[in-house]
Amino acid sequence: MTRAIVVNQSGGPEVMQTQDWPVAGPGPGEIAIRQTAIGLNFIDTYQRSGLYPVATPFVPGNEGAGIITALGDGVDFLSIGQRVVYQGQLGAYAEERVIKADKAIPLPDGIDDAVAAASTLKGLTAYYLLFKTWPVAAGETILWHAAAGGVGLIATQWAKSLGVRVIGTVGSADKAELALRHGCDAVINYNEEDFAIRVRELTEGRGVDVVYDGVGKATFHKSLDCLRPRGLLASFGNASGVVSIPDLGILSRKGSLYVTRPTSAHYFAQRQELLEAASALFDAIASGTIKVAVNHTFPLAEARAAHIALETRQTTGSVVLLP
Description:
- The chain has about 325 residues and is an alpha/beta fold.
- It has helices at about 40-50, 115-135, 150-160, 175-180, 195-200, 220-225, 250-255, 265, 270-285, 305-310; strands spanning about 1-5, 15-20, 30-40, 65-70, 85, 95-100, 105, 140-145, 165-170, 185-190, 210-215, 225-235, 260, 295-300, 320.
């Protein structure tokens, strides 16, 4: 048994309970780990609320770092005592757990556990969006919503290092200052001005090449107004609600636009793809190209408070739970 946060029914943060949870030994192709840091991500809130249905009861969380304590049969590419990080494996809000071995990423010496847990899911998201969904090129202009959030702070720094002009949106003056310090060339406070109008002003009427939108329903339609003809809207999150497009003709009327809804499962289906992306991320962190902002930590037992802070936009950068 291990201490874990358990969701026994879908709902708000109050449905999460701290309790004992069974942990079996690793089966074939699996490893057991003692966790040292756990990343908090918006997908955790979607699964807890039922927006992304998960059979209950379950342990939430999709990202963590720790030390391998046991190997299942057939695992010959990892070792007991090795530090690893993972993402995309439900069940992270626990002191100990078992994961698929091919999802474990060895941690380089220069990356500590809290930074790894704070940045792997978010950083790999930024990687596939910037390098695979639309391989950004020097001289292009992008708009990144929630630029002061966990994914945003990583992605804007990375994009800036590639010679991209970065426009970000935020919800407060403090977040605007933070985004400007992390790669944004211009920041729009959407509580003070219409971001679509301001983007057109900043681009002299042209529009941006790509909009990266993890906010969802509240920003989707105006995001289309920010794009140049044949530009791309990459919708990768639903923080404000699920996006619906009842009339696909809107894409032609606004400039033969492209829209995609990518997920990491399809970009990192093969272990080699996962390791290549992680190597690029850790190299960027080690070189200082990306500075990871672990701005909030909570004890694992206070996961409810962490979810409330995230959902009410009280956080910036990354949030880590400590077992």
